[in-house]
Amino acid sequence: MVSTTPLKTTKSQEIFNAAQSLMPGGVNSPVRAFKSVGGQPIVFDRVKGAYAWDVDNNRYVDYIGTWGPAICGHAHPEVLSALAAALEKGTSFGAPCALENVLAEMVIDAVPSIEMVRFVNSGTEACMAVLRLMRAYTGRNKIIKFEGCYHGHADMFLVKAGSGVATLGLPDSPGVPKSTTADTLTAPYNNLEAVKALFKQHPGEISGVILEPVVGNSGFIIPDGGFLEGLREITQENGALLVFDEVMTGFRISYGGAQAKFNVTPDLTTLGKIIGGGLPVGAYGGRKEIMEMVAPAGPMYQAGTLSGNPLAMTAGIKTLEILQRSGTYEQLEAITHKLITGLLAVAKETGHAACGGNLSAMFGLFFTEGPVNSYDDAKQSDLEKFSRFHRGMLEQGVYLAPSQFEAGFMSLAHTEEDIEFTLTAARKVMSEL
Ligand code: KE4
Predict the structure, then answer these.
(1) Taking burial as the number of CB atoms within 10 A of a residue's CB, which of 124, 179, 221, 325 is the most buried?
(2) 214/224 Cα distance (integer angstroms)
């Protein structure tokens, strides 16, 4: 049923207003403040399966899934009961525990590039550490990242994606000294020539290339045929490392991540989100000879109080066990494809230029003819229309990422009825856009 009355969000507004004086922007992560789509964010009370309820008891079909971890559905009963049992033994040890071995073996078995892994507490931490490892292993300082790719909020990655083919990094944020980003080079995504030019300009200085093998942070952008293979060749030719940041794509694009899907094996990989099953976890891993540089096996220092804690390990183990079950990724591909093709059909029906797609349980939509192959293309799409679409869908009980420069996340809990509900809402909203 498509609702016609505006949402009652009194309690959300009260709580969010009070939060303004307590936390910067009233949030603990900027995207949650809805700045790029406008309007008041809703305050969650609880989540279950494919749904979220706000503090005014409005229900939403949730396509964010806490930004990826909830691929099995929110508050999965098997994950919750495993956590309840683990809680009896305490929340954190700060000492080795067998659960770390279990999750490490699962990750090593699943991800082609990973022979050894280190757990940390967020994707940002994983990317910070992998950058230090790239430099420690090669003895070189420069890195190449791509415009529109996000690797967490560590200084070296907060680089203004400059115009032109290749840009020496300019900090994106105050508080980041130019010296910190001077070694961060950027190139447009899907542009191998730009990468070759950088290696030509800086012979022997570039430690490696880091990228989202499928981009979720410029909106949803897939690699052109040959792009990932080309990066593999160029890095090998230049004695540099290839690093896939699979914090978002790991165990989502396939059980082995984007690297398994595209059959391109990087030297190092970062993970997060899904491997923590909703609790704080990140990880970095790769070839043993590289990973053995990490303390205390080697000289490269990295540490963390809560790294490998039993609760996060438990939630991650149970989540991967569920994902290992047969038919999982076929189900995710089928239902996500049904959603995105439905949304594109509704856009066409209601006269809006739109493009988009999915890879397994990750999807995206832009209001433009497309195709969208880079961050520059994404920025040309109709951002204002996206904001109105987002607000309209929220009013209809559908919770989409509050920024055009994010991706959508499907779960095993979403049903055909949820897709029909979403498409009915989209038809109403798009016909009024
Ligand atoms: P965290 O530090 O947020 O766990 O991970 C950083 C990170 C690293 N690499 C990739 C490819 C990522 O997508 C992320 C984090 N993703 C965002 C969503 N675009 C997290 C949501 C947020 O910032 O609140």
Answers:
(1) 221
(2) 10
